[in-house]
Amino acid sequence: MWVFSASGCRWLGAGGSLAVAVGGWFAGTLPARGGWGLWERHGPAPTAAGALLAYLGLTLLVAAWGRYGVLLVRGAGAARDGESPDPGARDGVLATLVCWTVPLLLAPPLHSADVYSYIAQGAMVLEGHDVYGAGPSVLGPGDLGAEAAASVGGHWTDTPAPYGPAFLLLAAAVVKLTGGAVVPAVLGMRLIALGALALTAWAVRGLGGGPGGRAGALWLAVLNPLFLIHVVGGTHNDGLMIGLVLAGVLLATRGRWVLGCVLVGLALTVKSPAAVALLFIGVMVARRAGGGARGAVKGLVLPGAVAGAVAAGATVLAGTGFGWLRTQSVAGTIHTALSVTSDLGLGLGLLLADDPDPVKDLVQKLGLAAALVLIALLAWRSWRGLLDPVLGLGLSLVALVALSPMVQPWYLLWGTAVVASAAWYGRAGQVLAVLSAALVYETAPSGRTPWYGFVLAGAVAALGLLWARRDPWRAGAGEGAGPVGAATGRPASS
User: Fold this and answer.
1) Distant-in-sequence, close-in-space partners of 354: CB < 8 Å, separation ≥ 6
2) Rounded to the nearest 10 degrees, what angle do helices 412-423 and 427-439 cross at?
3) How far apart are CA 270 and CA 244, in angstroms?
């Protein structure tokens, strides 16, 4: 049937994306005020109808994406077996990406209110407030960004910014250009998200995706509904961090590691998890230097020094101060149900103590320590030539998210986009695809996390993992098992 072809998937997904956007006009994360008559809150009946339409559209989008992935997997398998793959799916990924992205461009914020925090924090910079000492609630009725501040989600109202100075400067520029009006400011932030999408796609294509090729890598990284809904629809700054990290890693694989570290340093001034990339760029630098003690020292010291200088320079130029180094832990004080360590710590605390917070804090710290150990082991395997450093970075970011004290659905994109760039066609890529399809249901279009969101996510995850077990993707060296070239630190076959 036509609907199961690459072209059919393209238009089915486009229809789903359009339904998500239209539903969002009635049930999205609409502003409390300042919607210009375009993004206005509605009564219970239109809101419920909009939410239903958005969920139906999301399901169509996920189904189309899944089917498109199956077509690419079949093509990758055919290429591996010496047969000619069907070019329809492989050559149409970028066209499909455009078709699925365009309907979301003028939609209100979807599945998250974070963009209102970004705008309010940008306004705080312009108004002279300390963004690392207070939250958006300090903005008065006559201040820039007051309308956005009124729409910031509950506990974030008084939370200092956990973001670096480069991102805050971008947010401040958007507020200055739009006068802080909610609708144009959100659209301005979405332009930044589109730039992040383009940068990520460019870097993923450059890194190649390992066995199965670039089309599959783009499918898992940016055609992913989790990316489209939360980076384009929700305008999360994680997309900008991912794009800068991947661009930096791409340059490092091509021998331009200094410029690569500059980009990672900029990514670090958006969100701090970008720092993990420096360790794996260091592995590439050390291997290119011939290994040994001298290579190890060069790899461990120089990338961090370059990125650190960039981050320090950006902080000084921004004039926002170094408070962002202090506020990296503020998000961990907010409990999210997706954090295994937070849930485990809270449960143990309630069982073992009158005050669960100390126990919870201890378990969270142990989780982060375990993540650091896993990251070190993956870096060691990359150093030994047993693992593609790019894949090692992707798996490290996945481990960091899994063991973090605060986990949001879109955090999975940190590692997913990197794994896609190295080995999308393999067990890791398949599991991350399943988790992406599941987690996109966890939050409602309104940004809330209703109980049925977890039920839907759990059902999709269970069905997807059952499918992955019955029909596993096997790509041989695609999991990065080597041999690894000494010059680039990447698999010799790629």
Assistant:
1) none
2) 150
3) 9
Pairwise CA distance, residues 107 & 117, whole Å:
18
CA torsion angle 265 268 273 276 (round to 10): 10
Does the pLDDT at position 206 exceed 50?
yes
One-letter identity of residue 44: P
Average pLDDT over residues 275-288: 95
pLDDT in tens, 97-122: 999 999 999 999 999 999 999 999 99
* Res. 367: pLDDT tops 90: yes
Residue 234 clears pLDDT 90, i.e. is over it = yes
- Residue 490 pLDDT more than 80? no
Supply the pLDDT for residue 480: 43
Supply 270's token pair.
């958006």
At 370, list the tokens: 């375990």
Q: In the 3-class helix/strand/coil scheme, how is 144-187 assigned residue by residue?
A: CCHHHHHCCCHHHCCCCCCCCHHHHHHHHHHHHHHCCCHHHHHH
Please give the structure tokens belonging to residue 344.
């485990």
Rounded to an integer, what distance in angstroms lies between the CA atom of residue 292 and that of residue 71? Answer: 44
Percent of the chain with pLDDT over 90: 76
Write phi, then psi, for 223 (nearest 5 degrees).
-75, -10
Quote the pLDDT of residue 481.
Answer: 41
| Cross-strand bridge partners of residue 484 | 491
The pLDDT tens digits for 14-32 are 999 999 999 999 999 999 9
pLDDT of residue 1: 59
With 0-12 / 13-18 / 19 or more C-beta atoms within 10 angstroms meaning exposed / middle / buried, residue 348 is middle
Q: Is the pLDDT of residue 477 over 50?
A: no
CA atoms in the 13 A half-sphere facing the CB of 78: 12
Single-letter code of the amino acid located at 188: G
What is the distance between the alpha carbons of residues 104 and 227, in angstroms, rounded to a whole number?
A: 12
225 cis-preceded (ω within 30 degrees of 0): no
3-state secondary structure of 442: coil
Report if pTM > 0.70.
Answer: yes
Distance CA 231, CA 293 (A): 41
Integer CA distances (angstroms), 403 to 223, 345, 365, in order: 26, 12, 9
CB proximity list for 485: less than 8 A, separation 6 or greater: 491, 492
Show the tokens assigned to 1: 């049937």
Closest CA to 323 of 488, 130, 42: 130
**Cα separation, 7 vs 67, whole angstroms:** 11
C-alpha–C-alpha distance, residues 431 and 375, integer Å: 19
Q: In the 8-state DSSP scheme, what is residue 339?
A: -
DSSP letter at 491?
Answer: B
